[in-house]
Amino acid sequence: MAISKDKKQTLVADLTELLNSSKMTVFARYQGLTVAELQELRKNARENGVKIKVVKNRLVRVAMNEIAVYKDTDTTGLTGQLLYAISDNDEVAPAKVLAEFGKEHDALQIAGAFNDLGHNLSEDEVKSLAALPSKNELIAQVVAQLLSPATDSVSALAGGLSGIVSGLEAHAA
């Protein structure tokens, strides 16, 4: 069913705004997914701060052409039935969401991505990004490393004090 010119202009305006604020946009082939599976993907994405858009590639190209950063971006990879996972606050989240969903649903195939600098990323690069720890996991690892010396010192002192107390109790008896 064809959509009106006004509707297309609205879609392009929405896409332009979304892509302009995006840190990472991952695109994937979804042919073979059921409506229920797409709804499940959208739910998972929403929980991780990622928006899933299913729009014509031509409209995405038009929207990208209106954003200075994406004017020179190669869009030849935008072919076939694609869905777009977009995040405006986390570079890795779209790749993670699609990769996790793709583990259980073979019909979803990551095709590539483009970042907020207008660079294309290959399928392999996107999969490498998906394997990275999330932003929160990285922060937790750094905090754990920073607290490690303090924790070790407290453990050593606690162990030493209990040894002294045990020795005193044995001597007093």
Summary, kept brief:
The chain has 173 residues and is α+β, with helices and mostly antiparallel strands.
Protein described:
This protein is of the alpha+beta class and 173 residues long. The chain folds into 2 domains: 5-132, Ribosomal protein L10, N-terminal RNA-binding domain (Alpha-Beta Plaits); 133-173. Helix content is 56%, strand content 14%. It has 6 helices and 5 strands; from the N terminus they run H-E-H-E-H-E-H-E-E-H-H. The chain has a 5-stranded antiparallel sheet. A hairpin with a 4-residue loop joins strand 4 (109-115) and strand 5 (120-121). Helix 1 crosses helix 3 (57-65) and helix 4 (93-104) packs across helix 5. The chain is elongated and about 95 Å long.
Radius of gyration: 25 Å
Label the structural class: alpha+beta
Strand content: 5-15%
CATH architecture of the largest domain: 2-Layer Sandwich
Instruction: Give me the CATH superfamily of the largest domain.
Output: Ribosomal protein L10, N-terminal RNA-binding domain
Summarize the amount of helix as a percent range: 55-70%
Indicate how many domains the architecture comprises. 2
Question: What sort of overall outline do the alpha carbons produce when their principal axes are compared?
Answer: elongated
Task: Output the number of helix runs.
Answer: 6
Which terms would index this structure?
173 residues; alpha+beta; five-stranded antiparallel sheet; 6 helices
